[in-house]
């Protein structure tokens, strides 16, 4: 993380704040409304703290060391083949969460939450790394929002079936490539191979006393995810609305390892960094899936769709009907996607007005709109049915092949 912060400072992308700021509401509120730079607080409850580490495509480009215009294509070409190596054991002291500036973000949140923690877990030789929001219960206990059906949930179910607790470790302030990889739905066990491939180097992993391996980070916690359930939430999540109370697994912490003068990383829910980390990792995945259907040019998860629920896919169709297959490919690649629009190469997918132009002039709703009911969506969608069922919509806003002249906008370069 520190090398990345130095590069962001060198790029003029960091605002350093020396005035004292509270971890309760003040720091999150500043990050929410001041999202054009990384915020580096030098006194957040007396600690160093960064927020908005990745807040737009330029900062993502700096973090991953990939030119901005090549991000989606470069990441889509990854094969999750990076190498890691064991680099020894970490030294821990007893866990004490109150020693960290863990933030309370919104007034009706249930309490303080770790929001940048990458949870590493392993069971029967299968490893996983994913970000989970973690509510603070006391100095040594957290409650994790562990979404049903995802990798961590599956490993916990296996541990419980074997009458065991799931060994876990949590990193705070790892390299952004680690966080980005942990936010990506990659094949089981491949998150750190993806991060190492992005970084272009063999990545050291350090062993915790419970056997879990973690990359370098400012703070490392280790312990066990248990079968015990506790109320978790309410909590403002990606949509900016309060996600409701659910019964979720309790995590019991044993140890904590902090770098001297550690830098804490906080992510304000529904802020720019949250939207980038929830959405950008899915763009290469949708790109890969759409590339199996037709010529795909680019993919964008839009901020208006909370960076997570809406995508625009830009293609050069080979045959009529490709648009509908791209819609289905996008929904398969990102199962929390709710609405997707497929457009041609002449549409600027980063300009909502241009996308709207395509919808306004190239869509006949009786033939170009695909409605899918009874499908699993995101548990974070306030209009979900139950805890995740939903209705999805795809819009094929591409021109009819052979009739492009009727749709292309006039200009003076003809
Ligand atoms: C709860 C989740 C993310 C967060 O807390 O920001 C994951 C949501 O997973 P879905 O599959 O979209 O329900
Ligand atoms: Mn995973």
The profile of the biggest β sheet is: 9 strands, antiparallel
Mean pLDDT rating: 97
Q: How much of the residues is beta strand, in percent?
A: 25-35%
Attached small molecules: the ligand C/C(=C\C(=O)O)CCOP(=O)(O)O, manganese (II) ion
Ends distance:
50 Å
The assembly state of the depicted protein chains is single chain
Q: How many strands in all?
A: 23
Our Rg estimate from Cα atoms comes to 22 Å
Spatial shape: globular
Number of helices: 12
Helix content: 10-25%
Any low-confidence stretches, pLDDT <50, length ≥5? none
Structural class: alpha+beta
EC number: 4.1.1.126
Domain 3-octaprenyl-4-hydroxybenzoate carboxy-lyase-like N-terminal: 6-77
GO cellular component, one term: cytoplasm
Organism: Methanorbis furvi
Describe the secondary-structure layout.
Blueprint: H1 2-10, E1 14-17, H2 26-33, E2 38-44, E3 47-51, H3 57-64, H4 71-76, E4 84-89, E5 93-94, E6 113-114, E7 118-123, E8 126-131, E9 134-138, E10 141-144, H5 151-161, E11 166-174, H6 176-182, H7 191-199, E12 203-207, E13 213-214, E14 217-232, E15 235-236, E16 242-243, E17 246-258, E18 263-266, H8 272-279, H9 282-291, E19 295-301, E20 310-316, H10 322-333, E21 339-343, H11 352-362, H12 365-368, E22 369-376, E23 389-396
Parallel strand pairs: 1-2, 3-18, 4-12, 20-21, 21-23
Antiparallel strand pairs: 2-3, 5-17, 6-9, 7-8, 7-11, 9-10, 10-17, 11-14, 12-13, 14-17, 15-16, 19-20, 22-23
The structure holds ligand L6KPPZSM and manganese (II) ion (MN).
Residues 133, 145, 147, 237-238, 278, 336, 378-380, 388 line the site of ligand L6KPPZSM.
